[in-house]
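Help wanted!
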Amino acid sequence: MTHSCLVRHVCAALFAGAIPIGAHAATPADLQAAYGALSGTAAAPDRGQQLFTSRHGREWSCSSCHGALPTQTGKHASTGKPIAALAPAFNPERFVDAAKTEKWFRRNCNDVMGRECSAAEKADVIAWLRTLK
Amino acid sequence: MNRRALFHRRSWVAVLSLVASHAAFAGDDQRTPGATLLPKYKQECAACHVAFPPGMLPAYSWRRLLDNLPHHYGTDASLEATTVNELASWLSANSGTYKRVREAPPEDRITRSAWFIRKHDEVAGAAWKRPAVKSAANCAACHTQADQGDFNEHTVRIPR
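Answered by r_m:
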């Protein structure tokens, strides 16, 4: 599935055709629901945490840059640049744009796991991040 | 003139030429102030690293980097084609053309340019390895105004 096609799927799941494709504004709950609908399974926050904090046969985990508890500023594992908090309760800019969310999942899952993440995995991760208050 | 006086005179010449070279560098910095950076460039590229001034690499280095974003120094930095094209035209128009930037550095790394190495030859080897610095590409660790495109030596604070 291509990137734009996946974004279209997420948007379709998000807005059920009510809003034109290209309007990506969303809430973290919307995006979790959209990925959940695509996967056909209920999101599990504990699975999301497990995925986020573990390494998957490569050098980095998600936590390598975002921190084990991404409620605070993280640090890029290679460049050292600060990365603003990922948990949406601590950073209102997170998971409010479907295209941006897709872009970062695509690239970072590739860095961490050597493949794209499934819709179920994305829903799990967002579900876990939403539990952090 | 005795030896001591001659030594002093030589020292002053050395100091003055050092000041002159830094002044020239400060002048170059002003060609690429942060305010003129393409918003898309800041948004996409400065998410992971400082927004390197486009004039610090020649056009073909930028082109090669943009052609290889899925394999960008060990990370997947892929972008949609429309974004890549937008960045390509802006980087090409603003790339370095003056003498010291004309040649592509090894691996298209700014930090391996001859001018970069020369400008940083006073920095102790151990300073680069400090946890707060980590990488020579982490300009902002010492250049406190790097995110504004200001690399003037007066704003340098090397972390202890």
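OP: Thanks! One thing I noticed: The two ends of chain B are 42 Å apart (CA to CA).
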